[in-house]
């Protein structure tokens, strides 16, 4: 049956980049999270995220529409429950690109979920990648880098840690994990 694969890691560690490549493969699908943050330049509603207002997000919590939800750098993020339940009935890998708080909530509800933590090669490279990405306001960028240190403390709770230095090597490492998991 479907396997839930959670990819976490500090902002800029490469989660989106890696998931985008992984989901090109057959039998790999990705959850679309709901968020109250604004879309980045290249992001379309319903593709990268479902972008909603704070009020709508709170209503969705009240209606039990999330498998997990968390606040990250001042914005809300949640994983829709229904598609996740559907995915577990299909013979696929279902990727969740979520933060450490959300990951642990899912692991509690779905203990068979595979938790992968993506690490940057080092702090300088992480900052450089976020600066080069050029998608965040200066304050958001500072907040994301501050959060990185805290998030790294959770890495030992994960089943696997992968250092995202060379992108191809990272993707191959994750493919290998999924075949053996
Ligand atoms: N292995 C790599 N080598 C060089 N650059 C990379 C690598 N992986 C990702 N990047 C680049 O680093 C930047 C951050 O990657 P990405 O947006 O995937 O991170 P993220 O973890 O999803 O961040 P966020 O949590 O903020 O969404 C992007 O510009 C991406 O192209």
Distance between the termini: 13 Å
Structure classification: alpha/beta
Strand % is 15-25%
Domain count: the total is 1
Look at the structure and give the CATH class.
Alpha Beta
Number of distinct beta strands: 9
Rg value: 16 Å
| Helical percentage | 40-55%
* CATH superfamily caption: P-loop containing nucleotide triphosphate hydrolases
User: What is the H-and-E element order?
Assistant: EHEEEHEEHEHEHHEH
Uncertain segments of ≥5 residues (pLDDT<50)? none
GO cellular component, one term: cytosol
Pfam family, one: Guanylate_kin
Family: Belongs to the guanylate kinase family.
GO molecular function: ATP binding; GMP kinase activity
How would you describe what is shown here?
It is a single chain. The two termini are 13 Å apart. Strand 5 (66-72) and strand 6 form a beta hairpin. The protein is globular. The mean pLDDT is 95. The protein is of the alpha/beta class and 181 residues long. The protein has one domain: P-loop containing nucleotide triphosphate hydrolases (Rossmann fold, 3-Layer(aba) Sandwich), CATH 3.40.50. The strands form two sheets. The protein has a five-stranded parallel sheet with strand order 2-7-1-8-9, with helices on both faces. Strands 4-3-6-5 form a four-stranded mixed sheet. The longest helix is centred in the last third of the chain and has 15 residues, at 138-152. 41% of the residues lie in helices and 24% in strands. The protein has helices at 15-22, 54-62, 81-88, 100-109, 123-133, 138-152, 167-180, and strands at 3-8, 28-30, 33-35, 49-51, 66-72, 75-80, 93-97, 114-119, 160-163. Bound molecules: adenosine-5'-triphosphate (ATP). Adenosine-5'-triphosphate (ATP) is lined by residues 9, 11-17, 129, 132-133, 164, 166-167, 170.
């Amino acid at each position: 049956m479907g396997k839930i694969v959670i990819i976490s890691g500090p902002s800029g560690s490469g989660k989106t980049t890696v998931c985008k490549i992984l989901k090109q493969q057959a039998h790999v699908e990705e959850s679309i999270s709901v968020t109250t943050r604004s879309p980045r330049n290249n992001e379309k509603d319903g593709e990268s995220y479902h972008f909603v207002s704070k009020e709508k997000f709170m209503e969705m919590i009240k209606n039990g529409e999330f498998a997990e939800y968390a606040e990250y750098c001042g914005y809300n993020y949640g994983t829709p429950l229904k598609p996740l339940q559907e995915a577990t009935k299909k013979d696929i890998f279902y990727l969740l690109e979520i933060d450490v708080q959300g990951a642990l909530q899912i692991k509690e509800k779905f203990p068979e979920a595979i938790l992968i933590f993506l690490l940057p090669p080092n702090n300088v490279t992480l900052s450089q990648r976020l600066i080069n990405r050029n998608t965040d306001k200066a304050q958001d960028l500072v907040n994301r880098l501050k959060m990185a240190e805290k998030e790294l403390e959770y890495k030992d709770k994960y089943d696997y840690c992968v250092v995202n230095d060379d992108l191809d090597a990272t993707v191959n490492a994750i493919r290998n994990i999924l075949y053996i998991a």
